[in-house]
Amino acid sequence: MFSLSLRRVSTADGRGRLACDSSQAPACREDRGEPSASGRNCGAAARVSAGGCETAPQRRLSRGGEEAARALSRATLLRLPCPLWAAARTAMSLLSATLLPPLLRVYAAGVWALLAQLFSRRFALPAFPSQHGKVAVITGGAKGMGYCTSRHLSRLGMHVIIAGNNEREGQEAVRTIREETLNEKVEFIHCDLASMKSIRNFVLQFKAKNLPLHVLINNAGVMLVPKRMTEDGFEEHFGLNYLGHFLLTNLFVEMLKESGRQDCSARVVTVSSATHYVGELRLDELQNSSCYYSSHGAYAQSKLALVLFTYQLQHHLTATRCPVTANAVDPGVVNTELYKNLNWAGKVIKWMTAWFFFKTPEEGAATAIFAAASPELEGVGGCYLYNGERTRSADISYDEDLQRKLWAVSCKMTGVHGAASSRLEN
Ligand SMILES: NC(=O)c1ccc[n+]([C@@H]2O[C@H](COP(=O)([O-])OP(=O)(O)OC[C@H]3O[C@@H](n4cnc5c(N)ncnc54)[C@H](OP(=O)(O)O)[C@@H]3O)[C@@H](O)[C@H]2O)c1
Questions:
Q1: 299 noted as active-site residue
Q2: Residue 87 maps to a domain
Q3: Structural domains in the chain (count)
Q4: How far apart are CA 234 and CA 239, in angstroms?
Q5: CATH number at residue 254
Q6: Residue 250 within any structural domain of the chain
Q7: For residue 389, what are the domain limits?
Q8: Which entry of 147, 242, 299, 398 is annotated as an active-site residue?
Q9: Does any domain span residue 219?
Q10: What is the mean pLDDT of residues 234-253?
Q11: Best of 165, 230, 329 for a ligand 1 pocket test (most atoms within 8 Å of beta carbon)
Protein backbone atom coordinates (compact mmCIF):
# COMPACT_ATOMS: atom_id res chain seq x y z
CA MET A 1 0.00 0.00 0.00
CA PHE A 2 1.14 3.51 -0.59
CA SER A 3 -0.27 6.98 -0.39
CA LEU A 4 -0.67 8.94 -3.56
CA SER A 5 -1.69 12.41 -4.59
CA LEU A 6 -2.28 13.77 -8.07
CA ARG A 7 -1.02 17.16 -9.11
CA ARG A 8 -0.59 19.11 -12.29
CA VAL A 9 2.91 20.40 -12.85
CA SER A 10 3.92 23.06 -15.29
CA THR A 11 6.22 22.11 -18.12
CA ALA A 12 8.60 24.06 -20.29
CA ASP A 13 5.96 24.41 -23.00
CA GLY A 14 3.41 25.66 -20.51
CA ARG A 15 0.91 22.91 -21.25
CA GLY A 16 1.30 21.17 -17.93
CA ARG A 17 0.97 17.51 -17.24
CA LEU A 18 -0.27 15.12 -14.62
CA ALA A 19 2.13 13.96 -11.98
CA CYS A 20 1.53 11.94 -8.89
CA ASP A 21 3.44 11.79 -5.67
CA SER A 22 3.53 8.50 -3.91
CA SER A 23 5.30 7.12 -0.92
CA GLN A 24 6.66 4.37 -3.14
CA ALA A 25 8.22 4.66 -6.55
CA PRO A 26 5.49 4.75 -9.20
CA ALA A 27 4.45 2.61 -12.12
CA CYS A 28 5.16 -1.03 -12.80
CA ARG A 29 6.14 -1.43 -9.17
CA GLU A 30 2.67 -2.74 -8.41
CA ASP A 31 2.94 -5.26 -11.16
CA ARG A 32 5.75 -7.03 -9.42
CA GLY A 33 3.16 -8.91 -7.45
CA GLU A 34 1.44 -9.94 -10.68
CA PRO A 35 3.96 -11.69 -12.84
CA SER A 36 2.01 -11.81 -16.06
CA ALA A 37 1.00 -8.22 -16.04
CA SER A 38 4.21 -6.27 -16.04
CA GLY A 39 5.11 -4.63 -19.30
CA ARG A 40 1.60 -5.06 -20.53
CA ASN A 41 0.28 -2.77 -17.87
CA CYS A 42 2.81 -0.14 -18.64
CA GLY A 43 2.02 -0.66 -22.27
CA ALA A 44 -1.60 -0.12 -21.44
CA ALA A 45 -0.80 3.17 -19.82
CA ALA A 46 1.16 4.10 -22.87
CA ARG A 47 -1.74 3.13 -25.08
CA VAL A 48 -4.05 5.37 -23.12
CA SER A 49 -1.62 8.19 -23.48
CA ALA A 50 -1.11 7.56 -27.14
CA GLY A 51 -4.78 7.37 -27.76
CA GLY A 52 -5.03 10.94 -26.60
CA CYS A 53 -7.44 10.05 -23.81
CA GLU A 54 -6.26 12.35 -21.11
CA THR A 55 -9.17 11.47 -18.88
CA ALA A 56 -8.14 7.84 -18.40
CA PRO A 57 -6.42 8.38 -15.06
CA GLN A 58 -9.35 10.29 -13.72
CA ARG A 59 -11.71 7.58 -14.94
CA ARG A 60 -9.62 5.01 -13.22
CA LEU A 61 -9.62 7.06 -10.03
CA SER A 62 -13.38 6.80 -9.90
CA ARG A 63 -13.09 3.02 -9.50
CA GLY A 64 -11.72 3.84 -6.10
CA GLY A 65 -9.35 1.96 -3.88
CA GLU A 66 -6.01 0.54 -4.59
CA GLU A 67 -6.63 -0.27 -8.22
CA ALA A 68 -7.26 3.36 -9.01
CA ALA A 69 -4.16 4.36 -7.12
CA ARG A 70 -2.21 1.85 -9.16
CA ALA A 71 -3.63 3.11 -12.41
CA LEU A 72 -2.84 6.64 -11.45
CA SER A 73 0.67 5.74 -10.52
CA ARG A 74 1.10 4.35 -14.01
CA ALA A 75 -0.18 7.63 -15.35
CA THR A 76 2.60 9.57 -13.70
CA LEU A 77 3.96 10.61 -17.02
CA LEU A 78 0.78 11.21 -18.89
CA ARG A 79 0.91 14.42 -20.78
CA LEU A 80 -1.30 15.84 -23.44
CA PRO A 81 -0.04 14.04 -26.55
CA CYS A 82 0.95 16.37 -29.32
CA PRO A 83 -1.93 16.08 -31.85
CA LEU A 84 0.43 16.33 -34.78
CA TRP A 85 2.63 13.55 -33.45
CA ALA A 86 -0.46 11.42 -32.89
CA ALA A 87 -1.49 12.08 -36.50
CA ALA A 88 2.00 11.29 -37.75
CA ARG A 89 2.03 8.09 -35.75
CA THR A 90 -1.29 7.04 -37.22
CA ALA A 91 -0.09 7.85 -40.72
CA MET A 92 3.06 5.81 -40.18
CA SER A 93 1.06 2.89 -38.84
CA LEU A 94 -1.19 3.04 -41.90
CA LEU A 95 1.87 3.05 -44.12
CA SER A 96 2.94 -0.25 -42.64
CA ALA A 97 -0.26 -1.79 -43.95
CA THR A 98 0.39 -0.67 -47.51
CA LEU A 99 2.13 -2.61 -50.21
CA LEU A 100 4.65 0.17 -50.77
CA PRO A 101 8.22 -1.07 -50.96
CA PRO A 102 10.24 -0.61 -47.74
CA LEU A 103 12.27 2.23 -49.24
CA LEU A 104 9.18 4.37 -49.88
CA ARG A 105 7.66 3.48 -46.55
CA VAL A 106 10.79 4.47 -44.65
CA TYR A 107 11.06 7.78 -46.52
CA ALA A 108 7.36 8.50 -46.06
CA ALA A 109 7.69 7.73 -42.36
CA GLY A 110 10.73 10.01 -42.23
CA VAL A 111 8.76 12.87 -43.78
CA TRP A 112 5.92 12.39 -41.28
CA ALA A 113 8.36 12.25 -38.39
CA LEU A 114 10.06 15.41 -39.65
CA LEU A 115 6.79 17.29 -39.99
CA ALA A 116 5.68 16.29 -36.52
CA GLN A 117 9.06 17.31 -35.19
CA LEU A 118 8.98 20.65 -36.93
CA PHE A 119 5.62 21.67 -35.56
CA SER A 120 5.76 20.17 -32.10
CA ARG A 121 7.53 21.72 -29.18
CA ARG A 122 11.14 20.85 -28.54
CA PHE A 123 11.74 18.76 -25.47
CA ALA A 124 13.89 20.58 -22.96
CA LEU A 125 15.60 18.39 -20.40
CA PRO A 126 14.81 19.32 -16.84
CA ALA A 127 17.55 19.48 -14.21
CA PHE A 128 18.26 16.12 -12.60
CA PRO A 129 19.67 15.30 -9.20
CA SER A 130 23.29 14.28 -8.96
CA GLN A 131 23.96 10.75 -10.21
CA HIS A 132 27.21 10.26 -8.28
CA GLY A 133 27.87 6.63 -7.47
CA LYS A 134 26.04 5.33 -10.53
CA VAL A 135 27.74 3.55 -13.39
CA ALA A 136 26.52 3.69 -16.99
CA VAL A 137 27.53 1.81 -20.12
CA ILE A 138 26.70 3.57 -23.40
CA THR A 139 27.17 1.77 -26.69
CA GLY A 140 28.32 4.00 -29.53
CA GLY A 141 29.04 6.67 -26.96
CA ALA A 142 31.94 8.22 -28.82
CA LYS A 143 29.97 10.21 -31.37
CA GLY A 144 26.55 11.52 -32.33
CA MET A 145 23.80 11.16 -29.78
CA GLY A 146 25.77 8.58 -27.83
CA TYR A 147 28.50 11.14 -27.22
CA CYS A 148 25.98 13.74 -26.03
CA THR A 149 24.40 11.16 -23.73
CA SER A 150 27.80 10.15 -22.32
CA ARG A 151 28.74 13.77 -21.73
CA HIS A 152 25.45 14.63 -20.04
CA LEU A 153 25.49 11.61 -17.74
CA SER A 154 29.11 12.33 -16.90
CA ARG A 155 28.17 15.90 -16.06
CA LEU A 156 25.55 14.52 -13.69
CA GLY A 157 28.31 12.62 -11.92
CA MET A 158 27.87 9.12 -13.33
CA HIS A 159 30.85 6.89 -14.00
CA VAL A 160 30.55 6.49 -17.77
CA ILE A 161 31.91 3.60 -19.80
CA ILE A 162 31.82 4.18 -23.55
CA ALA A 163 31.52 0.95 -25.51
CA GLY A 164 32.67 1.52 -29.06
CA ASN A 165 34.44 -0.01 -32.00
CA ASN A 166 36.88 2.80 -32.72
CA GLU A 167 39.66 3.08 -30.13
CA ARG A 168 40.98 6.43 -31.37
CA GLU A 169 37.59 8.14 -31.44
CA GLY A 170 36.68 6.57 -28.12
CA GLN A 171 39.80 7.84 -26.35
CA GLU A 172 39.31 11.27 -27.89
CA ALA A 173 35.72 11.34 -26.61
CA VAL A 174 36.92 10.34 -23.14
CA ARG A 175 39.50 13.12 -23.10
CA THR A 176 37.01 15.77 -24.23
CA ILE A 177 34.30 14.69 -21.82
CA ARG A 178 36.71 14.63 -18.90
CA GLU A 179 37.88 18.14 -19.77
CA GLU A 180 34.38 19.49 -20.22
CA THR A 181 32.71 17.88 -17.23
CA LEU A 182 35.68 17.68 -14.84
CA ASN A 183 34.54 14.14 -14.14
CA GLU A 184 37.53 11.78 -14.36
CA LYS A 185 35.33 8.71 -14.28
CA VAL A 186 34.92 8.35 -18.02
CA GLU A 187 36.43 5.36 -19.78
CA PHE A 188 36.44 3.67 -23.16
CA ILE A 189 36.34 -0.09 -23.65
CA HIS A 190 36.44 -1.61 -27.09
CA CYS A 191 33.22 -3.36 -28.14
CA ASP A 192 32.33 -4.24 -31.70
CA LEU A 193 28.62 -4.94 -31.67
CA ALA A 194 28.94 -6.77 -34.96
CA SER A 195 30.92 -9.47 -33.19
CA MET A 196 29.53 -11.73 -30.46
CA LYS A 197 33.09 -12.50 -29.37
CA SER A 198 33.90 -8.83 -28.97
CA ILE A 199 30.68 -8.25 -26.97
CA ARG A 200 31.55 -11.11 -24.62
CA ASN A 201 35.11 -9.75 -24.25
CA PHE A 202 33.73 -6.32 -23.47
CA VAL A 203 31.50 -7.72 -20.72
CA LEU A 204 34.44 -9.65 -19.25
CA GLN A 205 36.57 -6.50 -19.23
CA PHE A 206 33.80 -4.54 -17.59
CA LYS A 207 33.25 -7.22 -14.95
CA ALA A 208 36.98 -7.26 -14.19
CA LYS A 209 36.61 -3.71 -12.96
CA ASN A 210 34.31 -4.87 -10.15
CA LEU A 211 31.93 -2.02 -10.73
CA PRO A 212 28.17 -2.12 -10.34
CA LEU A 213 26.02 -1.31 -13.38
CA HIS A 214 23.04 0.99 -12.99
CA VAL A 215 22.36 2.18 -16.53
CA LEU A 216 22.80 0.42 -19.85
CA ILE A 217 22.11 2.52 -22.93
CA ASN A 218 21.77 0.48 -26.11
CA ASN A 219 22.47 3.34 -28.48
CA ALA A 220 24.89 2.24 -31.21
CA GLY A 221 23.54 1.60 -34.65
CA VAL A 222 24.08 1.60 -38.37
CA MET A 223 21.61 2.57 -41.08
CA LEU A 224 21.28 1.76 -44.76
CA VAL A 225 24.46 -0.28 -44.99
CA PRO A 226 24.70 -2.38 -48.15
CA LYS A 227 23.94 -6.04 -47.76
CA ARG A 228 26.71 -7.58 -45.72
CA MET A 229 27.11 -9.91 -42.78
CA THR A 230 28.49 -9.53 -39.30
CA GLU A 231 31.37 -11.69 -38.12
CA ASP A 232 28.81 -14.26 -36.95
CA GLY A 233 26.97 -14.35 -40.24
CA PHE A 234 23.98 -12.14 -39.44
CA GLU A 235 22.60 -9.46 -41.72
CA GLU A 236 24.30 -6.33 -40.39
CA HIS A 237 21.30 -4.21 -39.33
CA PHE A 238 19.71 -7.11 -37.54
CA GLY A 239 22.98 -8.50 -36.18
CA LEU A 240 24.47 -5.24 -34.92
CA ASN A 241 21.52 -3.00 -34.07
CA TYR A 242 19.39 -5.72 -32.55
CA LEU A 243 21.19 -9.00 -31.81
CA GLY A 244 24.32 -7.24 -30.53
CA HIS A 245 22.25 -5.34 -27.98
CA PHE A 246 20.15 -8.40 -27.19
CA LEU A 247 23.30 -10.31 -26.26
CA LEU A 248 24.89 -7.40 -24.40
CA THR A 249 21.78 -6.82 -22.30
CA ASN A 250 21.43 -10.49 -21.44
CA LEU A 251 25.07 -10.70 -20.41
CA PHE A 252 24.55 -7.68 -18.15
CA VAL A 253 21.13 -8.47 -16.77
CA GLU A 254 22.33 -10.18 -13.59
CA MET A 255 24.64 -7.25 -12.82
CA LEU A 256 21.80 -4.83 -13.37
CA LYS A 257 19.59 -6.83 -11.01
CA GLU A 258 22.30 -6.77 -8.35
CA SER A 259 22.93 -3.05 -8.78
CA GLY A 260 19.31 -1.89 -8.76
CA ARG A 261 17.49 -1.18 -5.52
CA GLN A 262 13.78 -1.04 -4.83
CA ASP A 263 13.86 2.75 -4.58
CA CYS A 264 16.46 3.19 -7.29
CA SER A 265 16.01 0.79 -10.17
CA ALA A 266 18.75 -0.01 -12.62
CA ARG A 267 17.71 0.99 -16.14
CA VAL A 268 18.02 -0.38 -19.65
CA VAL A 269 17.42 2.28 -22.28
CA THR A 270 17.23 1.15 -25.88
CA VAL A 271 17.32 3.59 -28.78
CA SER A 272 14.77 2.70 -31.43
CA SER A 273 13.40 4.90 -34.19
CA ALA A 274 10.17 6.08 -35.80
CA THR A 275 11.04 3.78 -38.70
CA HIS A 276 9.93 0.90 -36.49
CA TYR A 277 6.35 1.99 -37.28
CA VAL A 278 6.85 0.85 -40.85
CA GLY A 279 9.04 -2.10 -39.98
CA GLU A 280 8.06 -5.66 -40.75
CA LEU A 281 9.31 -8.56 -38.72
CA ARG A 282 9.05 -11.98 -40.27
CA LEU A 283 10.51 -14.63 -38.06
CA ASP A 284 11.32 -16.78 -41.07
CA GLU A 285 13.10 -13.89 -42.80
CA LEU A 286 15.07 -12.22 -40.02
CA GLN A 287 18.25 -12.41 -42.03
CA ASN A 288 16.73 -10.62 -45.04
CA SER A 289 18.22 -13.34 -47.14
CA SER A 290 15.74 -13.21 -50.02
CA CYS A 291 17.17 -12.11 -53.35
CA TYR A 292 15.52 -8.71 -52.97
CA TYR A 293 17.38 -6.96 -50.17
CA SER A 294 16.22 -3.61 -48.87
CA SER A 295 18.58 -1.83 -46.50
CA HIS A 296 15.66 0.45 -45.56
CA GLY A 297 13.50 -2.54 -44.68
CA ALA A 298 16.36 -4.16 -42.76
CA TYR A 299 16.96 -1.01 -40.68
CA ALA A 300 13.25 -0.63 -39.88
CA GLN A 301 13.06 -4.30 -38.94
CA SER A 302 15.98 -4.01 -36.53
CA LYS A 303 14.36 -1.02 -34.83
CA LEU A 304 11.03 -2.85 -34.51
CA ALA A 305 12.85 -5.84 -33.02
CA LEU A 306 14.37 -3.54 -30.38
CA VAL A 307 10.92 -2.38 -29.26
CA LEU A 308 9.58 -5.95 -29.07
CA PHE A 309 12.71 -6.90 -27.12
CA THR A 310 12.26 -4.03 -24.66
CA TYR A 311 8.68 -5.02 -23.84
CA GLN A 312 9.57 -8.68 -23.42
CA LEU A 313 12.54 -7.83 -21.24
CA GLN A 314 10.27 -5.75 -19.02
CA HIS A 315 7.92 -8.71 -18.69
CA HIS A 316 10.75 -10.83 -17.41
CA LEU A 317 12.08 -8.18 -15.06
CA THR A 318 8.69 -7.55 -13.53
CA ALA A 319 7.88 -11.23 -13.24
CA THR A 320 11.08 -11.81 -11.31
CA ARG A 321 10.48 -8.67 -9.24
CA CYS A 322 13.83 -7.19 -10.12
CA PRO A 323 14.57 -3.53 -9.51
CA VAL A 324 15.41 -3.02 -13.17
CA THR A 325 13.35 -1.26 -15.82
CA ALA A 326 13.55 -1.33 -19.61
CA ASN A 327 12.32 1.41 -21.92
CA ALA A 328 12.69 2.18 -25.61
CA VAL A 329 13.26 5.71 -26.83
CA ASP A 330 12.71 7.46 -30.14
CA PRO A 331 15.13 10.37 -30.58
CA GLY A 332 13.36 11.92 -33.59
CA VAL A 333 15.17 12.84 -36.80
CA VAL A 334 18.65 13.95 -35.82
CA ASN A 335 21.58 15.46 -37.70
CA THR A 336 24.30 12.84 -37.19
CA GLU A 337 26.59 10.65 -39.23
CA LEU A 338 23.99 7.92 -39.22
CA TYR A 339 22.97 9.16 -42.67
CA LYS A 340 26.42 8.62 -44.20
CA ASN A 341 25.15 5.71 -46.30
CA LEU A 342 22.46 7.73 -48.08
CA ASN A 343 22.87 7.89 -51.85
CA TRP A 344 24.28 11.12 -53.27
CA ALA A 345 20.84 12.68 -53.90
CA GLY A 346 19.79 11.93 -50.34
CA LYS A 347 23.02 13.43 -49.05
CA VAL A 348 22.45 16.64 -51.01
CA ILE A 349 18.87 16.94 -49.74
CA LYS A 350 19.97 16.27 -46.18
CA TRP A 351 22.80 18.77 -46.46
CA MET A 352 20.36 21.46 -47.64
CA THR A 353 17.63 20.79 -45.11
CA ALA A 354 19.08 19.24 -41.97
CA TRP A 355 20.13 22.52 -40.38
CA PHE A 356 16.49 23.57 -40.29
CA PHE A 357 14.46 20.37 -40.04
CA PHE A 358 16.64 17.99 -38.04
CA LYS A 359 17.29 17.97 -34.34
CA THR A 360 20.82 18.58 -33.11
CA PRO A 361 22.53 15.55 -31.51
CA GLU A 362 22.04 17.19 -28.09
CA GLU A 363 18.30 17.51 -28.71
CA GLY A 364 18.14 13.98 -30.05
CA ALA A 365 19.90 12.58 -26.99
CA ALA A 366 17.50 14.26 -24.58
CA THR A 367 14.95 11.45 -24.35
CA ALA A 368 17.61 8.78 -23.73
CA ILE A 369 19.11 10.95 -20.99
CA PHE A 370 15.65 11.48 -19.55
CA ALA A 371 15.03 7.72 -19.55
CA ALA A 372 18.39 7.11 -17.88
CA ALA A 373 18.27 9.72 -15.16
CA SER A 374 14.83 11.16 -14.59
CA PRO A 375 13.36 10.56 -11.12
CA GLU A 376 9.95 10.69 -12.85
CA LEU A 377 10.78 7.39 -14.48
CA GLU A 378 11.79 5.62 -11.30
CA GLY A 379 10.18 2.18 -11.45
CA VAL A 380 8.62 2.87 -14.85
CA GLY A 381 9.33 0.31 -17.56
CA GLY A 382 7.91 -1.12 -20.74
CA CYS A 383 7.38 2.28 -22.34
CA TYR A 384 8.16 3.82 -25.69
CA LEU A 385 9.27 7.39 -25.10
CA TYR A 386 9.34 10.25 -27.56
CA ASN A 387 10.23 13.81 -26.57
CA GLY A 388 10.20 12.75 -22.92
CA GLU A 389 6.64 11.43 -23.15
CA ARG A 390 5.15 8.01 -23.24
CA THR A 391 3.69 7.28 -26.58
CA ARG A 392 2.19 4.34 -28.39
CA SER A 393 4.58 2.29 -30.46
CA ALA A 394 3.53 0.27 -33.51
CA ASP A 395 0.55 -2.03 -32.88
CA ILE A 396 2.60 -5.08 -33.76
CA SER A 397 5.11 -4.29 -31.01
CA TYR A 398 2.47 -5.13 -28.38
CA ASP A 399 2.00 -8.63 -29.81
CA GLU A 400 3.17 -10.72 -26.86
CA ASP A 401 3.32 -13.89 -28.89
CA LEU A 402 5.67 -12.24 -31.36
CA GLN A 403 7.72 -10.81 -28.48
CA ARG A 404 8.17 -14.27 -27.00
CA LYS A 405 8.98 -15.91 -30.31
CA LEU A 406 11.50 -13.25 -31.25
CA TRP A 407 13.15 -13.66 -27.86
CA ALA A 408 13.39 -17.41 -28.27
CA VAL A 409 14.86 -17.10 -31.77
CA SER A 410 17.31 -14.46 -30.56
CA CYS A 411 18.47 -16.75 -27.74
CA LYS A 412 19.23 -19.44 -30.27
CA MET A 413 21.03 -17.02 -32.57
CA THR A 414 23.20 -15.59 -29.80
CA GLY A 415 23.62 -18.68 -27.66
CA VAL A 416 22.05 -16.97 -24.65
CA HIS A 417 20.69 -19.35 -22.05
CA GLY A 418 20.52 -17.20 -18.96
CA ALA A 419 17.86 -16.97 -16.31
CA ALA A 420 16.15 -14.28 -18.30
CA SER A 421 15.84 -16.51 -21.28
CA SER A 422 14.90 -19.82 -19.77
CA ARG A 423 11.65 -18.47 -18.40
CA LEU A 424 10.81 -16.74 -21.63
CA GLU A 425 11.67 -19.62 -23.86
CA ASN A 426 9.05 -21.79 -22.19
N1 LIG B 1 20.04 10.17 -36.36
C2 LIG B 1 18.76 9.91 -36.42
O3 LIG B 1 17.99 10.62 -37.07
C4 LIG B 1 18.20 8.74 -35.66
C5 LIG B 1 16.82 8.58 -35.66
C6 LIG B 1 16.28 7.52 -34.97
C7 LIG B 1 17.11 6.64 -34.30
N8 LIG B 1 18.45 6.82 -34.34
C9 LIG B 1 19.29 5.85 -33.62
O10 LIG B 1 20.11 6.54 -32.69
C11 LIG B 1 21.27 5.76 -32.42
C12 LIG B 1 22.50 6.65 -32.44
O13 LIG B 1 22.71 7.07 -33.78
P14 LIG B 1 23.31 8.49 -34.19
O15 LIG B 1 22.25 9.17 -34.95
O16 LIG B 1 23.92 9.17 -33.03
O17 LIG B 1 24.38 8.02 -35.26
P18 LIG B 1 25.98 8.01 -35.24
O19 LIG B 1 26.51 9.34 -34.94
O20 LIG B 1 26.38 7.36 -36.51
O21 LIG B 1 26.31 7.07 -34.01
C22 LIG B 1 26.20 5.69 -34.11
C23 LIG B 1 27.19 5.10 -33.13
O24 LIG B 1 27.15 3.68 -33.23
C25 LIG B 1 28.49 3.23 -33.32
N26 LIG B 1 28.64 1.96 -34.00
C27 LIG B 1 28.41 1.65 -35.28
N28 LIG B 1 28.77 0.39 -35.53
C29 LIG B 1 29.23 -0.11 -34.38
C30 LIG B 1 29.77 -1.36 -33.99
N31 LIG B 1 29.92 -2.36 -34.87
N32 LIG B 1 30.15 -1.54 -32.72
C33 LIG B 1 30.04 -0.55 -31.81
N34 LIG B 1 29.55 0.66 -32.12
C35 LIG B 1 29.16 0.88 -33.39
C36 LIG B 1 29.17 4.30 -34.14
O37 LIG B 1 30.56 4.19 -34.04
P38 LIG B 1 31.46 4.23 -35.41
O39 LIG B 1 30.87 5.24 -36.31
O40 LIG B 1 32.82 4.53 -34.93
O41 LIG B 1 31.34 2.85 -36.02
C42 LIG B 1 28.62 5.54 -33.46
O43 LIG B 1 29.32 5.82 -32.29
C44 LIG B 1 21.26 4.64 -33.44
O45 LIG B 1 20.80 3.46 -32.84
C46 LIG B 1 20.26 5.09 -34.48
O47 LIG B 1 19.66 4.03 -35.15
C48 LIG B 1 19.02 7.86 -34.99
A1: yes
A2: no
A3: 1
A4: 5
A5: 3.40.50.720
A6: yes
A7: 118-417
A8: 299
A9: yes
A10: 97
A11: 165
